[in-house]
Design brief:
Layout (H helix, E strand, L loop, with lengths): L1 H28 L3 H20 L3 H4 L1 H25 L6 H30 L6 H16 L3 H16 L16 H9 L12
Length: 199
Amino acid sequence: MKSQMINYLLAQVGGALGIGIFYLIQRFTGAAAKKLLASQIVVMGIVGIIFVTNLNSTIGFIASMAPITIIMISVQSYCRSMFSCLIPPGQESAMFAFYEISDKGSNLMGSLITIFVYQVSGQYRMVYWYVLVGSAVCLYVLYFVDVEEGQKACNAERVAVDAPGETTADAPSNVGETTVGKATGAETGGDESLEPPTA
């Protein structure tokens, strides 16, 4: 029990340290979140290689898991940050609900894969093949994600929604406009801003 508490505290300290490290890297290099996230995924893949090749028995378990401990919390923050930049306006609740479901679902999937691999192979080391494959798939998908263009498109749509005076054909332009007013405008030839006749 005592060793578990120590490992938990070390994981939290390492995660906080990783946040500070990547914050400084991004601040001084100006690297985009996508590039930093890609580098963190590469680190996860390297850790997978270490365990698959049994190199961890040479360099030690703590040294092998230190990179994962450092990037653990930072990866989650960068994923959430990038995801929030690509949410279309008006769909925030649905998209964040999907994010939470997929996040918890991936935890369940990882646990099931770990149990299955251990039952088949009799060792946990082979689970890191899943880490390798997952890292490769994440890098492949991330390569095709254009965060800047997606953010520009979302911002443009948000400006179009929030801009005053820009309405659809059927929606009233303001609260005071009613269907009666529209009907009156239609009866007068579609001109709703008729001026009184001059003398």
